[in-house]
């Protein structure tokens, strides 16, 4: 190769549940990557390089231009153009049209109006845990229902559809899912959206966000259905993953856990930086030759933006491998950057602040029910997280509680 680099496949093995792959972190800020379909592209691990690519309009998110860096059969097939309404895979100006329609529905004022719902769903989950008693799976009892119920309420989706949508979303994000499995999962969610639209019609009196967007008259039926599918499929899994993984990290670090209540807003920003759950699916393809960090990314070459690694760049965050809830993590890339920055970031932040604070206020003696090394992680997913998080609670002497946390840290090596 002209740049003298040797292309390697994407490294995915993590040394601990909280740290990005070691081999990936040893790469230069921008290095060659061999894709499963034979494409020769790049991976960006440096903060400055990643941020620059995210902000550069010469890079595209159009699905038919992207190559998948990891996975099974799906990674070797060339994708087709995104269907109308799948706005994350559109470039401006098409992308701008959808963002404009949605922006105020996810802005700070709208999220402030959702705070009672976030608190209500959080309290219901905690009441359920308390009523059932320990041990419990914190993922299914707490982390999964809260974001899912909030997004369903926002969109006007019935509560009884929540678990079906969650199961379909997990299939879509599993990088080893077969194409036919993904197709069936997408059909499940789009079918749910069609049912919602059929019930609500164009009335905005009692309907949710989908009814309001439908009433604008700016979208076709196909665009509206696919837009609803995107919002429903992406509106809960990253936050539920962050809730569970954030709680897991705090359960293994009592000193940091003690800082949460003092400044939940600062604490959440650091957890987002430290854990960054979007791991393999943030990609861009160069539309023209672009020089970034002294390397020329040629037109047609795909770049994987390794956000978990970029957010551990020591050039941007001192002592990046330390979880420090007292630090200012402003500027992290957990929600991306530029015109495609996560639409739901204000909602996700609010859910994380409310839910994590309430969890440890209600259960101050919450602890892992298994050694930390036995908590299974979701490594082969576009959205990283845990598959289960067994916890328990009940009065323990302070010395035993501290010893348990110390053992948890030792388990993680």
- Computed structural class: alpha+beta
Q: Give the neighbour order of strands across the main sheet.
A: 1-2-8-5-3
Poorly predicted ranges: none
**DSSP strand content:** 5-15%
Identify the CATH class: Mainly Alpha
The name CATH uses for the topology is Cytochrome p450
Average of per-residue pLDDT values: 90
- Provide the CATH architecture: Orthogonal Bundle
> Count the strands?
10
Number of H- or I-type helical stretches:
17
Shape: globular
Largest sheet: 5 strands, mixed
Distance between the termini: 38 Å
When the domains are counted, the total is: 1
Assigned CATH superfamily: Cytochrome P450
Share of helical residues: 40-55%
């Amino acid at each position: 190769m002209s740049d003298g680099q040797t292309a390697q496949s994407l490294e995915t093995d993590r040394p601990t549940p909280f740290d990005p792959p070691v081999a990936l972190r040893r790469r230069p800020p921008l290095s060659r990557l061999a894709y499963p379909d034979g494409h020769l592209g790049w991976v960006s691990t440096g903060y400055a390089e990643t941020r620059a690519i995210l902000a550069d309009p010469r890079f595209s998110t159009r699905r038919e231009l992207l190559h998948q860096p990891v996975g099974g059969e799906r990674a070797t097939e060339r994708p087709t153009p995104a269907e109308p309404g799948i706005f994350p895979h559109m470039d401006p100006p098409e992308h701008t049209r959808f963002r404009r329609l949605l922006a105020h529905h996810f802005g700070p004022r709208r999220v402030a109006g959702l705070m009672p719902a976030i608190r209500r769903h959080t309290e219901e989950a905690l009441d359920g845990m308390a009523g059932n008693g320990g041990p419990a799976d914190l993922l299914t009892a707490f982390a999964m229902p809260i974001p899912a119920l909030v997004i369903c309420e926002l969109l006007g989706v019935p509560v009884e559809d929540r678990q079906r949508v969650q199961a379909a979303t997990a299939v879509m994000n599993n990088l080893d899912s077969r194409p036919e499995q993904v197709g069936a999962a997408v059909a499940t969610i789009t079918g749910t959206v069609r049912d919602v639209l059929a019930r609500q019609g164009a009335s905005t009196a009692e309907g949710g966000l989908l009814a309001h967007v439908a009433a604008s008259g700016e979208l076709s039926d196909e665009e509206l259905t696919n837009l609803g599918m995107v919002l429903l499929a992406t509106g809960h899994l990253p936050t539920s993953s962050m809730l569970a993984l954030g709680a897991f990290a705090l359960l293994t670090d009592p000193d940091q856990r003690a800082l949460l209540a003092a400044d939940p807003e600062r604490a959440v920003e650091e957890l987002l930086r430290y854990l960054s759950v979007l791991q393999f699916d943030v990609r861009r393809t160069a539309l023209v030759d672009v020089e970034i960090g002294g390397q020329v990314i040629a037109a047609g070459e795909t770049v994987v933006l390794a956000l978990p690694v970029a957010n551990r760049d020591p050039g941007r965050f001192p002592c990046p491998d330390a979880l420090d809830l007292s630090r200012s993590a402003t500027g992290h890339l957990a929600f991306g950057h530029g015109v495609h920055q996560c639409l739901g970031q204000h909602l996700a932040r609010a859910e994380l602040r409310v839910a994590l604070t309430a969890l440890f206020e209600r259960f101050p003696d919450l602890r892992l029910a298994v050694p930390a090394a036995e908590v299974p992680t979701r490594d082969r997913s576009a959205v990283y997280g845990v598959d289960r998080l067994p916890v328990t609670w009940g009065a323990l002497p302070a010395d035993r509680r501290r010893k348990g946390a110390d053992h948890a840290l030792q388990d993680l090596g």
